[in-house]
Amino acid sequence: xxxxxxxxxxxxxxxxxxxxxxxxxxxxxxxxxxxxxxxxxxxxxxxxxxxxxxxxxxxxxxxxxxxxxxxxxxxxxxxxxxxxxxxxxxxxxxxxxxxxxxxxxxxxxxxxxxxxxxxxxxxxxxxxxxxxxxxxxxxxxxxxxxxxxxxxxxxxxxxxxxxxxxxxxxxxxxxxxxxxxxxxxxxxxxxxxxxxxxxxxxxxxxxxxxxxxxxxxxxxxxxxxxxxxxxxxxxxxxxxxxxxxxxxxxxxxxxxxxxxxxxxxxxxxxxxxxxxxxxxxxxxxxxxxxxxxxxxxxxxxxxxxxxxxxxxxxxxxxxxxxxxxxxxxxxxxxxxxxxxxxxxxxxxxxxxxxxxxxxxxxxxxxxxxxxxxxxxxxxxxxx
Length: 383
Fold this sequence. Notes:
single chain, alpha/beta, Rossmann fold
């Protein structure tokens, strides 16, 4: 286009108490788009901490609506229609939230369809049946209304084609990428992390959320089977914001005599050191639309053990050790091997940085800009 694109973007993932993988994705959209001349205007249902977005991005924040989907159906359309001058397009970044009837086109990022494919693994509010129906209606409507749909993995693309086939011809895969702020740390930071989290010992690491889908219970049970009584087991650091699930898993670890450390949320600037102190990264999740923590492990050269749940094999490829979802016996076998032959696992981990280089932020930003331009041209009826 002859002038800079003006894009309204949903920044709600950056307003949450702690930033998840979706929030990391949104921050990278801002960084990559701004470097390519895109002018962003943010929208949110609450105030975003100032340190999470550039100061020159205006944000319209307005609460109300009575829940996430109701906000998207009630408050969001009024916000978008009141923005002047009207933008070239709107980017819904969080799986749904594309209002109908806007005077400009929309782009949707769909990270996963886990609540649709695996409702049993989703902590639904009550009544669950109502919220499942609202979710499916919101996602299907957004995917069908958007001029372009970005999905973050081939796994999510396949799920979308199966569940919402009408959106298939407008869908493009742009994988999540390595955050620019994350780089492999040196051995000094690794030693500092070992002192902080495990009394100086090398440790195995999990980083992520705590909910039943993450299969932390399976990991703890596998540790107990691989190392009866804890003999020969390295400490296991399970990092992520604490909640009721994490507290239950702490109780489970004590009951199983697994030496597990739950440090809580680890800030971004401490993550390179956290990975540098680890000799193995374990991510047994039941299903992922992408999964940024294993990607960070690849950058750090830490060998990965992941489940075959969703996109995880796409991420680690030949550099990872892959076990069936929920199979504690298979996981116990691979963990025992990791303890008995660390050199073989380290050799596999050394392949990680080259694998991670495939998830390049500049390439993703270029492809996202092309999606923006295609969507914006549709406003004028251009091909």
